[in-house]
């Protein structure tokens, strides 16, 4: 069982460019998996696993189960504000990506880990929870919703700090998580985030009262993902 993962940091990158990049890795792994079916165990090749970190310029993305009514401005207003908009093939509804938000795309062959998509989602959440804990922030799960939340025991104070939306095929994953470090939260007022009307969105900077270092967060989250998924080698 090969759990080595290649780490890639794309920095600030256009959403569509990053989408195409991860699609290529996603297809590469699937093609290798399909080719391995015709080979003996000794002949089979390692398909590869990738962990892609990046940030995006301002963009709204709508998942395949989402409703366009959750976008609260029209195409002309999007253009005027310089916000891109894409319908994409992940699960979930509408969300925002922008500078100051750490986006992570794990492109993993789950055959090397476990073939359980719900467990996979919980593990992604756990890595974020562990990272938040290092800063004294208590990240939590919310019944019936994905992502990482704060103050779930207080209905009027519940707020989301990390959103999740993934796609899988042949037990290979793509898309992933969007972790609010220090984005401009005003952009979330232009959508109904994830189709949820009664809960707020927050960031580490807002909760801490200062701006944490993005590179530090990347390193901590990378370490926690490796810990949770029991990655053998991260390079």
**Mean pLDDT rating:** 93
How many DSSP E strands?
Answer: 12
**Helix-residue proportion:** 25-40%
Alpha-beta content class: alpha/beta
The tally of helices reads 5
Distance between the termini: 17 Å
Q: Main sheet, how many strands, which sense, barrel?
A: 9 strands, mixed
Give unreliable regions as ranges. none
Rg over CA atoms: 18 Å
Rough outline: globular
Task: For the structure shown, list the relevant keywords.
235 residues, alpha/beta, 9-stranded mixed sheet, 3-stranded mixed sheet, 12 strands, 29% strand, globular
Can you offer a commentary on this structure?
It is a single chain. With 235 residues, the protein is an alpha/beta fold. Helices cover 28% and strands 29% of the residues. It is built from five helices and twelve strands. The strands form two sheets. Strands 1, 2, 6, 7, 8, 9, 10, 11 and 12 form a nine-stranded mixed β-sheet that branches. It has a three-stranded mixed β-sheet with strand order 4-3-5, with no helix packed on it. A hairpin with a 2-residue loop joins strand 7 and strand 8. It is globular, with a radius of gyration of 18 Å. The two termini are 17 Å apart. The model has no long low-confidence stretch (mean pLDDT 93).
